[in-house]
Each structure stands twice: as C-alpha cells, then as structure tokens.
Amino acid sequence: MTIRMRPARREDVAAIVALLADDPMGGERERVGDPPAASYLAAFERIAAEPRVLLVVAEDDGGAVVGTLQLAFIPGLSNQGGELALLSAVRISGARRGQGLGARMVEWAMAEARRRGCGIIELLTHASRVDAQRFYERLGFTPSHVGMRRPL
What we know:
This protein is of the alpha+beta class and 152 residues long. The protein has helices at residues 13-20, 24-29, 38-48, 78-81, 101-115, 130-138, and strands at 4-7, 53-59, 65-74, 84-92, 120-123. Helices cover 35% and strands 22% of the residues. A five-stranded mixed β-sheet has the order 1-2-3-4-5, sandwiched between helices.
C-alpha cells in the first residue's frame, strides 16, 4: 500500500473530522457531517493561514484520506533557543490500523521537524489511551511530563 502525505485541503475536512471521531473519546466529542459544521471549516481556515502549523493527511493509492496529523513548530528560549515540534491529533482509519501506517506517519512528522531545524518533538496522548502510549514508546518517545488541562 502506497501512502502519500500531503497538506490537508478544505475538501478533506469532513474526512479528517470522521477520523477524529473514530474512537470512543472522539466519538463523544466530534460532530461528523458532510458538509462539516461551520466551526470545523473556520478552524481549518485558521490552521491553513498559520505558517507554523501543518495539518496533514495520509492518502492511499485510491485518493482516500486514511490518516491525519497536526504538527506545530514552536519557537522558544529553552533548550538554548531551540525550536520545538508538537505532534497532535494523530488518527488512522479504523480499517487501516495495524498495518504500519501510524508509524510511517509519525516518521514523516519527525523527518519534517528535523528538516525545519527542530531539536525536539513532543506529543500528548490522553492518559486513558494506553495502546497509543505503547505505540509511541515503540517509536522512541519517552514519558517526560505530566500534562494538565483546564476548561476556560
């Protein structure tokens, strides 16, 4: 199976939202529809206008969107002024899980972060996603921080 990583387009938003909703947590949080809700389209426009953020899809041979991820590049003073890449919203189609697609997508993200001069890549995964944590550890990620969240 050949997979091509490419920047997401507006017409991909419905497929991306479906991927985000394709697990128990996302299924409760996201609203799947075609066309997608206006809030998703507005968010896509903000992301597309931000040069330090990439929203990417994985496309199969037939042109179907089978995965997505978001990669943000954050300048900072820590680590001697080094650039940080933040990987988020990594999702694979349920029908394509277990085929190595996730690893290829994360490897693509790491290569892109290196290409842009980042010295570190970080990601967050929900504490309840134990399988995802094991997946990232197999790719060389190590637990390092305690994440906290608060509604505003």
